[in-house]
């Protein structure tokens, strides 16, 4: 009985709808054209969004590349970074009594910088053949901005380095075991920022 009542209610609701206007001639072709027009405008909008995403990604990539280049290019400075401006930097190619360079005969493509005073070696490409050693010193600063520790810095300088076109040196900071332990514990830091 209830099913019949539902059916009659549905029938009444359908009959209460207005009569369609058959004069407008909504043909299948007309409906198809409307659907195609909507699909075309949707595709255009989708392509515009995709192009805008690509342009945005390109701009972000170029910005990141320029920022990276600015941060990594050598800055025209007369001194290696991190050194005290009141301190004299000594550049001497021939003050190498504890240092010697050895060309690896097996490979022939590398130069081995060996420092016998501090007991370490450093491998360089063959293009660095006439490198220089620049001596300087580092200072360890405590949290109260007091100089707490200091030690030597040996910088390996590229043979094509010049005042007009400086290149980045390879700095090697020398620590005693006690200094290294103190640095690891954060008792002092090196440089402007108090971070390791």
What does this molecule look like?
The protein is α+β, with helices and mostly antiparallel strands. It has helices spanning 2-16, 28-72, 177-185; strands at 90-91, 99-103, 110-115, 120-125, 132-141, 147-157, 170-173, 189-190. The strands form two sheets. Strands 1, 5, 6, 7 and 8 form a five-stranded antiparallel sheet that branches. A three-stranded antiparallel sheet has the order 2-3-4, with no helix packed on it. The longest helix is centred in the first third of the chain and has 45 residues, at 28-72. It is elongated and about 105 Å long. The model is unreliable at 76-106 (pLDDT under 50).
Rg (C-alpha, Å): 38 Å
Helix/strand-derived category reads alpha+beta
What overall geometry do the principal axes of the alpha carbons give?
A: elongated
- Uncertain stretches of 5 or more adjacent residues: 76-106
SS field, number of helical segments: 3
Helix-strand topology string: HHEEEEEEEHE
Number of strands: 8
Helix fraction, binned, reads 25-40%
Tell me the strand percentage band.
Answer: 15-25%
**Termini Cα gap:** 85 Å
- Strand count, sense and closure of the main sheet? 5 strands, antiparallel
| Average pLDDT over all residues | 76
Annotation keywords:
about 35% helix, 8 strands, elongated, about 25% strand, alpha+beta, about 200 residues
């Amino acid at each position: 009985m209830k099913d019949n009542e539902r059916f009659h209610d549905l029938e009444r609701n359908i009959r209460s709808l207005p009569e369609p206007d058959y004069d407008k001639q909504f043909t299948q072709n007309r409906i198809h054209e409307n659907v195609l027009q909507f699909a075309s405008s949707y595709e255009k909008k989708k392509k515009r969004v995709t192009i805008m995403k690509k342009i945005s990604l390109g701009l972000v990539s170029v910005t990141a590349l320029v920022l990276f280049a600015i941060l990594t290019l050598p800055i025209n400075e007369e001194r290696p970074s991190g050194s005290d401006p009141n301190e004299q930097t000594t550049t001497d190619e021939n003050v190498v009594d504890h240092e010697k360079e050895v060309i690896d005969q097996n490979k022939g493509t590398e130069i081995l910088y060996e420092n016998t005073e501090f007991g370490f070696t450093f491998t360089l490409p063959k293009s660095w053949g006439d490198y220089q050693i620049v001596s300087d010193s580092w200072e360890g600063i405590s949290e109260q901005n007091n100089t707490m520790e200091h030690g030597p810095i040996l910088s390996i300088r590229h043979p094509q380095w010049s005042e007009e076109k400086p290149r980045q040196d390879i700095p090697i900071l020398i620590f005693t075991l006690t200094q290294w332990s103190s640095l690891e514990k954060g008792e002092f830091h090196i440089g402007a920022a108090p971070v390791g």
